């Protein structure tokens, strides 16, 4: 998959671009609803012997449009989004820089510049996609703005339990610890990547060595607590348990939560390695224990429960 970053105005030359079927949207999470949009574009492109593309935006529009929003955390940061889109068979990824100038574009100017002038012959979008200044362009006005120069397909709302599948809903599920339901709507386990950094080695002292992960501040993390996870180390996958929290038994007044991962049946040093954590099940809340002995007893119970969880799921 080729990734192309675009500002307004972009400098790509129309005659040098392939005939393309594109899916357009922000696509944070690339959940089942998003996948329907993207897979529709990929399938149509293959059937017409064209290139498939995804057109998305960065950063999140709320950073530009809402004065009270300074920082957004993403279910799928850009790198994760790129990897998922590649797995879905997308040929090209256009990332449009969302800034004040872009937000001021009238709907027709947006379509002319970022659809027609990218040689998009067919556009696929969700029913609620909007474009142009103040979102005045939408899938009801697309016929007018297309000027007959491209076809378009509107994907209806997808639901689970009579509710719309949306990034907002998935965020709420993650923040409330409903990781299994969030994964169901995503169509895959939530993945968080991080680099192993040196910690205080207290886990090793109590018989449960942990890898401390340094995670980008743009990553949306689930609810504080203990989780059943799978850990991807290079090309191998291991089961384990992760603590996301403040480690209150040993540490007071920590400002930011940390991720500590105990990988089952794994003893190799990992400092500097990148790990990919798949979050599978919320086990319990974080607890402050009165002694290391109480903590060890609880960790033993957590390990047993998590091993049984993965055994039953296998």
TrEMBL record:
<keyword id="KW-0285">Flavoprotein</keyword>
<dbReference type="GO" id="GO:0008531">
    <property type="term" value="F:riboflavin kinase activity"/>
</dbReference>
<keyword id="KW-0547">Nucleotide-binding</keyword>
<feature type="domain" description="Riboflavin kinase">
    <location>
        <begin position="185"/>
        <end position="311"/>
    </location>
</feature>
<protein>
    <recommendedName>
        <fullName>Riboflavin biosynthesis protein</fullName>
        <ecNumber>2.7.1.26</ecNumber>
        <ecNumber>2.7.7.2</ecNumber>
    </recommendedName>
</protein>
<dbReference type="InterPro" id="IPR023468">
    <property type="entry name" value="Riboflavin_kinase"/>
</dbReference>
<dbReference type="InterPro" id="IPR015865">
    <property type="entry name" value="Riboflavin_kinase_bac/euk"/>
</dbReference>
<comment type="similarity">
    <text>Belongs to the ribF family.</text>
</comment>
<comment type="pathway">
    <text>Cofactor biosynthesis; FAD biosynthesis; FAD from FMN: step 1/1.</text>
</comment>
<dbReference type="GO" id="GO:0006747">
    <property type="term" value="P:FAD biosynthetic process"/>
</dbReference>
<dbReference type="GO" id="GO:0009231">
    <property type="term" value="P:riboflavin biosynthetic process"/>
</dbReference>
<dbReference type="InterPro" id="IPR015864">
    <property type="entry name" value="FAD_synthase"/>
</dbReference>
<dbReference type="InterPro" id="IPR014729">
    <property type="entry name" value="Rossmann-like_a/b/a_fold"/>
</dbReference>
<dbReference type="Pfam" id="PF01687">
    <property type="entry name" value="Flavokinase"/>
</dbReference>
<comment type="pathway">
    <text>Cofactor biosynthesis; FMN biosynthesis; FMN from riboflavin (ATP route): step 1/1.</text>
</comment>
<keyword id="KW-0288">FMN</keyword>
<dbReference type="GO" id="GO:0003919">
    <property type="term" value="F:FMN adenylyltransferase activity"/>
</dbReference>
<dbReference type="GO" id="GO:0005524">
    <property type="term" value="F:ATP binding"/>
</dbReference>
<keyword id="KW-0548">Nucleotidyltransferase</keyword>
<keyword id="KW-0511">Multifunctional enzyme</keyword>
<comment type="function">
    <text>Catalyzes the phosphorylation of riboflavin to FMN followed by the adenylation of FMN to FAD.</text>
</comment>
<keyword id="KW-0274">FAD</keyword>
<dbReference type="InterPro" id="IPR023465">
    <property type="entry name" value="Riboflavin_kinase_dom_sf"/>
</dbReference>
<keyword id="KW-0808">Transferase</keyword>
<dbReference type="GO" id="GO:0009398">
    <property type="term" value="P:FMN biosynthetic process"/>
</dbReference>
<dbReference type="Pfam" id="PF06574">
    <property type="entry name" value="FAD_syn"/>
</dbReference>
<keyword id="KW-0067">ATP-binding</keyword>
<keyword id="KW-0418">Kinase</keyword>
<dbReference type="InterPro" id="IPR002606">
    <property type="entry name" value="Riboflavin_kinase_bac"/>
</dbReference>
């Amino acid at each position: 998959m080729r990734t192309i970053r675009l500002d307004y105005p972009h400098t790509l030359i129309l005659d040098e671009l392939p005939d393309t079927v594109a899916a357009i949207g922000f696509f944070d999470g690339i959940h089942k609803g998003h996948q329907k949009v993207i897979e529709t574009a990929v399938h149509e492109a293959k059937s017409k012997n064209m290139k498939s593309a995804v057109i998305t935006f960065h950063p999140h529009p709320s950073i530009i449009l809402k004065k009270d929003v300074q920082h957004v955390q993403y279910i799928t940061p850009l790198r994760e989004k790129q990897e998922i889109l590649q797995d879905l068979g997308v040929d090209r990824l256009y990332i449009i820089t969302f800034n004040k100038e872009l937000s001021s574009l009238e709907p027709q100017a947006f379509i002319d510049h970022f659809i027609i002038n990218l040689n998009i012959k067919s556009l696929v979008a969700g029913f609620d996609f909007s474009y142009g200044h103040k979102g005045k362009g939408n899938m009801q006005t697309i016929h007018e703005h297309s000027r007959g120069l491209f076809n378009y397909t509107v994907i209806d709302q997808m639901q689970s339990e009579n509710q719309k599948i949306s990034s907002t809903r998935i965020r709420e599920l993650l923040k409330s610890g409903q990781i299994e339901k969030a994964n169901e709507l995503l169509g895959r386990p939530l993945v968080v990547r991080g680099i192993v950094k040196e910690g205080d080695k207290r886990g090793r002292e109590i018989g449960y060595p942990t890898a401390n992960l340094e995670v980008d501040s743009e990553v949306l993390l689930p609810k504080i607590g203990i989780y059943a996870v799978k850990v991807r180390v290079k090309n191998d996958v291991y089961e384990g348990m992760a603590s996301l929290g403040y480690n209150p038994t040993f540490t007071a007044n920590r400002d930011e939560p940390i991720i500590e991962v105990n990988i089952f049946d794994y003893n190799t040093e990992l400092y500097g390695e990148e790990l990919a954590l798949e979050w599978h099940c919320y086990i319990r809340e974080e607890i402050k224990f009165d002694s290391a002995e109480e903590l060890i007893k609880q960790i033993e119970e957590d390990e047993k429960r998590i091993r049984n969880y993965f055994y039953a799921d296998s």
